[in-house]
Amino acid sequence: MLCPGGFTPYRDVDCRDLAIFYEATRDLRGTTYKPYLVATQEARGVNFRFICNSTIMTRPPQNAITMVCIFKPFCKEHDKVRAVVTSICKMGCYNCF
User: Fold this and answer.
1) Left (φ > 0), alpha (ψ -120 to 50) or beta: where does 68 sit?
2) pLDDT tens-digit profile of 4-59?
3) In a domain, 4, yes or no
4) I want to staple 47 with a disulfide (CB 3.0 to 4.6 A). Which of 3, 40, 41, 87 is the partner?
5) Domain that holds residue 62
6) What DSSP string describes 29-56?
7) Assigned domain for 53 exists
């Protein structure tokens, strides 16, 4: 059972989620993100919490599990309102040898 105003349980990312994710992150540089789980919440739009594998382009590259939060406002004219990144939080890191 969901708490009113709460986020949905995490689920696999689908094509619609990926479209929102890439719309919001297309201008980010220096780190690549591969989303694999998402939770959503409706509030004057849709809040997304994407759990991603991130790779920071350093030498050597650094990998981490990251939560990328995105907001997509409700709008009748979808082309005029873009999804935006509201926060990026590193959840854990690991090194690949």
Assistant:
1) beta
2) 678 999 999 999 999 999 999 999 999 999 999 999 999 888 999 999 999 988 88
3) no
4) 41
5) 11-90
6) -SEEEEEEEEEEEESSEEEEEEEEEEEE
7) yes
